[in-house]
Structures are given as C-alpha cells and as structure tokens.
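Quick note —
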Amino acid sequence: MAKTLFSEVPESFFSPLASKHKVHYSELLLCYYRLFETYSTGVERELVIGSFTEYITERSGLLSHPSELFDDPEESAVSGLSYVPSDESAGTQIGNAGTFARNIASMFLRRLISCGWMSEEILADYTEVINITMWSRLFYTAIAETVKGSSMEYESHVIGIYSAICSDAVEEQGAHAVLIGLDHTRRLIESLKTLSQNMKTHIESMFSEDAEVRDLLHIHYDLYMHEIVDKAYNRLKTSDNLSKYRPLITSQINALLQQDIWLLKSAHKLSVMRGCTKEEAHASLCSMLREIRDELRNIDPILEEIDDKNRQYSRISTEKIKSQVYADASLKGKVQKIIRGMKEEETAYLLLRPNIRRTALVQDRSLFTPRVSRQAEMTVEKPSVPEDDMEQIELEMRMRIAHQLNHEKICAFLSEHCHADGSPTEATELIGSMEDLVRVIYAAAYAEGREHRFPYTVVWGDRPVRWGRYEFLEHRFIPKGKIDHGA
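Predicted structure written out below.
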C-alpha cells in the first residue's frame, strides 16, 4: 500500500491550525520550537507551560472570554475553566489571572500533544519532557521560515557541489559525494526558481497597486529592496562562485564518467545503500552525474529571467511613481483638472453641457456615419534580381558554408595535429594562428558537450597560459580509449 500524508501523521494533525484560534496555536508552536532549538535533550514541561502562560498573559482577550477558547461549546462545559476576578485586593486578582492563564496554557499544550505536534516523555527521575514528533519536524521548520522570511542561499550550494564532486573524498566515497552534490544542485535550482516566483508576485502586486507616492516608495525601497534585492538578488549578482566553480565541476564530472573503475566501485557502494542491483546503481550513478552537469549548464536562462523580472519591476514602479508625481500631465489628470474647474466656476457647466435637440422622426439620414477616405490602391511588385547577381549571391553562400566549422572538421583538425601515439596534446601546441585558436575553442566545447560522439576528451588544468594577447586555462586533448587518469 502506497504511503500517504495521513498514513504518517494523525488525522487531527492540522486541526489546531484550522480552528478559529489558529493564530494563537501557530504562535505557541513557535514559542515551543524556539525552546526546543535551545535545549538539546527536549524541553521540560514546566518551561513549556511557563512560555505558553507568558504568551497568554500578554493577550488579555484570551482571559476575558474563556468560553471562546473552545471550538465546541460542550468542551467548554467539560473543562470547567472559568475566571472571575476577585474584589478583595489587587493581589488576589493578579493571582487568579495567573492561575487561569496557566490552566489555559495547559489546555493548549494538551491539545497540541493529542493532535501529534508534540510527544510527552517521563524520564527516570520523573521529569516530564516535551519533544517534537518525528513527522512534525519539517512543519515546525516551515512555520518558522514562513514567519521570519528565509533568505535564499546560492553560494553555499555552489560550494557544496564543488566540495562534494571535486574533493579527494570522491575517490573513496563516490556514491555519497554524488548524492550530496545532487542534493545541493537541486536546492540551488529550487532557490533560483523561488526567487523568480517571488519577483513575479511583487511585479503583479506593484502593477495592481494604486497608492500614493509615499506608499509606492515604501513598497519599492523598503519591502522589495529588503525581501528581494538585499536578501537574494545582490548576493546572486555580486558572487563569482558560479562562474568560478561551474567549469571545474563540469570538467570533473566529464572525467568521472570516463573512469570505468571508479564507476564500478561507486556503483557497488550505491547498490548496497539502496538495495538494488549493480547495473541499476551504475545507471543511476551516471544519471545523477549528468543531471548535476546539465542543471549547472542550463542555469543561465533562469538567471536571465530573474534579471528581466528585476528590470520589469523597476520599470513598473518608476512609471507608477511618475504617473502620481506628474498626474496633471496625464489624461486622467487633465479630466480631474476640468472637473475641479467646473466645481470652482458654476457658469463653466453651461459651456460644457451637451446640446441635445428633440427630433420627431429618426431616419437613416439622421444617423451619423463616419467618413471613409478613399485612398488609391498601391501595388508593390517584387523587385527583380538580375541573373548574374543571383549566381554571385549563390556562390558567396556556398563559400560561406564551406568555411563553417563543424564536428567533422574539428575531428579532422585534432587527428592531424594531435600526437600519433595517443599521448596528451597540449592546446598551446595546436595553436599556430587565429584560425587554430578558434578551432581549439570549438574542440573544447565539442569534447565537453558531446562526450558520446566526439572522439577526444579535454582535461583542464589550473595554470593559466597565454597565446599572443589571449589568456586561458591550460588544457590538453586525449583520444578516447587512451586516457591517462593520472595525467
């Protein structure tokens, strides 16, 4: 039987957050979660009750109408909770209020425990401890991040991918490294998509906003700048981690996909972890490596979309502010100016009122028909091209196609200039002219992007080299099947 949400959590799990006191329940859950993050072995019941009592005491409305604390009227009668302030002394009133607030806190805690948000445990020394249930942990995190507004992480995910894939640990713990790298990759893409969606929400809100200039400035320079620009967009645009580490990650993944011994060893460990066959683990391992590489390559369109949305939001907010500042210059402002003038001068209405005349008979000639200006029909003929010019154009096109670089020409170039014994050939050895430099650039792109079809593999180094006035990382080309993994 397939697992469902309510096969893991109690059926009444969400009832506190769906009741009429959902605001108080959510705040009490946050109070407990902050205590739970402070104490590593659970929170004593007295501390939880104290925190809940403090929250309830600060809200006098919960003490004034105790019957409204229950969704079911019968539950109020069964609980027996009542609060009648004493008239004897102020101290007695405070004591009654404190006792009643503590009773309400206990009632809220029992409700949360019965719905599965918390569990109660009695230790060997008879201390009562309140812990988080296994299934509620993620919901606590979601509530906390929703309230405080979680910031988007980019640098940590990029560095996490690089640390997992390009570190020495990948040689011995390849399966774990790939799983960690894939998790960071998916989190990176998820963060970027969330940022894009948040920007879209702000754009729609600004587009439909009809407020004063001060409110528009607050929305743009306080809300948008704080929630989008400061928390996410600035770090995304100023950080160089993506451009710095992405080529190194891509190169390492291409090299790992060519190492059969490493793939077999890592697939064996993955099969033990997942309880599947080695063939399935091998296919899954290769698929995960390709997913990491392809997701990092396809991240540029998402970044361009984010830049477009930021420009769109800035343009919309600027136009909104300009339309408010220069309202009299717009059509709406002119109409409002006319109406204000009519109110100030009563005789102006006589000049603007419509002149309607009575007519006894309405005929076809009485109706207004717009005048249609007849324009002479214009015929545009396709210009004729002399036959000699067509031959010249066709010849130039054939010559242009003949000089275009393609997969076969790059393969022929490498086969002609690379070492015949299959040893690595440095890229600088292949460059003798500007045309050769362009061919080497094409060769590196083909070697990384078409690993199955291209007969050569490119291996990148860390040292920058120069050719003329151009500088690039050192790299070498090796025929497939003759890769020296120690190179």
